[in-house]
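User:
Care to share a sequence and structure tokens?

Assistant:
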Amino acid sequence: MSTSTIELRAAVGTTPRTGHYHMSGLLRSEWTKLRTVRSTMWTLGMTIVLGIGLSAIATAETTSHWSTTSLASRAGFDPTNESLIGVAFVQLIVAILGVLVMSDEYGTGTIRSTLAAAPRRPKVLVAKATVFGVVALVVSEVVSFVAFFLGQALLKSPTPHTSLGSPGALRAVVGAGLYLCVLGLFSLGLATIIRHTAGAISAVVASLLVLPLVAAALPSSIGDQVRKFLPANIGNSLTSLHSGAHQFAPWTGFALLCVYAAAALLIGGILFVRRDA
């Protein structure tokens, strides 16, 4: 038995003699792996810095140029969405982190040690998704709320600004964090299916960046309907106070994104059980 397998058995609270372990041990093991990987800390740090920083830059820029802004742009201005603009930029970072949580273990071969220590594969996947989901949710909500408050502070009069008490504002701020979390879980599911970092990241990039371009190239009668179902469009509907003509209602879109994530994790879980490590 390898040293890494023995260490993982200790982390999940099992021994070669009994083979028994509990979900609490698996959760501790996944938390240890997540927080001790350098790329995880860098990725979470980039999410925080860029999510808040880009929102601050956007709102400060809007304030400085408000006097020269056209009447049409002023009429359609959404101060809540403006202060959450960083979410659109960090969504890819969170999605990539979701990929790495699973694909890194396949890339390094440590998935074999993990499964030797904890052979019940569905429980391993549940533990990974739970730990990552909690971390992603906490970080995403912190970024969302800080970006909102900082952005509104920078949107000085006469630039329109808002507060959490305004209709739809709290929903948009909370929804931004929920969107990033579920998008990350969707990416984790894709990584479980594909099992290769480059392939899974390519699939994520395609869903977030390539498919919207493809939809834009289609006739508007078709493209508008396709865009409704794309993750990035769902995220935009959640962070905006008013849904567009070709968008789902915020929570309807979020429910659809949850279906995407659940389907990816379910298919990934089935393949995770059936395939060799």
About this structure: The two ends are 17 Å apart (CA to CA). The CA atoms of residues 78 and 90 lie 20 Å apart. The chain has 13 helices and no strands. Residues 121-154 form the longest helix (34 residues).
